[in-house]
Amino acid sequence: MAATVSSSGITSCAFSRSVISSEPKVSQIGSLKLLDRVSVTTPMPLNLSGKRSSVKPLNAEPKRNDSMVPLAATMVAQVAEEVVETEDFAELAKKLENASPLQIMDKALEMFGNDIAIAFSGAEDVALIEYAHLTGRPYRVFSLDTGRLNPETYRFFDAVETHYGIRIEYMFPDSVEVQGLVRSKGLFSFYEDGHQECCRVRKVRPLRRALKGLRAWITGQRKDQSPGTRSEIPVVQVDPVFEGLDGGAGSLVKWNPVANVEGSHVWSFLRTMDVPVNTLHAAGYVSIGCEPCTRAVFPGQHEREGRWWWEDAKAKECGLHKGNIKENANVNGESKPIVEDIFKSENLVALSRQGIDNLVKLENRKEPWIVVLYAPWCPFCQAMEASYDELADKLAGSGVKVAKFRADGEQKEFAKQELQLGSFPTILVFPKNSTGPIKYPSEKRDVDSLTSFLNLVR
């Protein structure tokens, strides 16, 4: 029984509906027909009665269902629902810890059928679509169109649809909310008061609507993307933040098939499989988001440093994965993830508050100093650890002191007022015979760049 179901385009305030032609047809998800996965020996009647179906489109509101879904899809979802009710996902995560991304993807699609979809951001997470394609199972893909993406990303979306023969299910922000935000605060308010409000309107709320039509979703999170917030993500978990189709806590499962894969290995896979990629990557962009909030990174910088670069680097998350952030309150009431100290070269001086205070006040230094103001939980500080340790070893015995000062927590206000701290890391050079420090202006934190600046000002 050959058939297809087509969907109308969606706008910011309209949801797509399945259109049933005069000839009974079976819905297509991804690039394969559902009948390829359901054994049918006799013709199967379609659900044309207008009654509610147990399968909802991705972009359906939680309390309405205007699509009429064939019985084959209903059967897949019913089987998946029975499995989900009895599954211990913490235990499943342990079983799949050493599984390949392809095996994890196959398990996810097998368990959830039409009630799971891949969240595609327009970056290297295209690998998820390739893995889904390789399983031979039906799959769905959705993306959040914030209205502020790069032109290259929109062209990449089109290339992916053509390459895989799929239609990405786009989710849009509420036009009234966007209008209210822009009219009251302007187009670039996030540069002044942070990105969270804009991300909440353009990304988090559309995602919440999307997930209300699913029982599970698939993300491209990796542990090495953000050591401060993503280092402990499992390959599968009950979503700690969002709700799924059934509503309530525990109603949504989150799959992270490439959690244990390094970024370089993802790229090796993409090149091997000749998968289309966003052209922004060739321009130095690693982590890609909205155009005003994304830029290329330099050697020695962490990939997430290209996002919201004007803000404190404590938790570079837009809200889509805020459940990753595990925090611990210190004596000052400030919260930060628990992480061990960094910059451990034997040739590096660890300054105390009194030590850095004395260095600032010293008017006639006998040798120049270079000092990094850091927070050990900051992924961008972590990214420059190797180069800074190498610099300390290189300058040992040269007459230049290389030092570090931990400037978070109760030291943060002091560092802001007295040490020009803007965001982590901040690098200062204290020249010989000079009263005040000179702030390193570049974000190139490799050994050669730091050495060149030091030679200019020392």
Compute the separation of the termini in Å: 79 Å
Structure class: alpha/beta
Q: Helical amount among residues, as a percent range?
A: 25-40%
What does the radius of gyration come to?
A: 26 Å
- In percent, how much strand structure appears in the residues? 5-15%
Low-confidence stretches: 1-57, 59-86, 315-319, 325-337
Number of strands: 17
H/I helix tally: 14
Model description:
The protein is of the alpha/beta class and 458 residues long. Helix content is 31%, strand content 12%. The chain contains 14 helices and 17 strands. It has helices at residues 71-86, 89-95, 101-112, 126-135, 151-164, 175-185, 190-193, 196-211, 263-272, 353-361, 379-383, 385-394, 412-418, 447-457; strands at 6-7, 18-19, 28-29, 32-33, 116-119, 141-144, 169-171, 216-218, 236-238, 253-255, 328-329, 335-336, 349-350, 369-374, 401-406, 426-430, 438-439. The strands form 5 sheets. It has a 6-stranded mixed sheet with strand order 7-6-5-8-10-9. A 5-stranded mixed sheet has the order 13-15-14-16-17, with helices on one face. Strands 1-2 form a two-stranded antiparallel sheet. Strand 3 (28-29) and strand 4 form a beta hairpin. Helix 3 crosses helix 4 (126-135). It starts with 5 loop residues before the first strand and ends with a helix. It is found in: Plastid, Chloroplast.
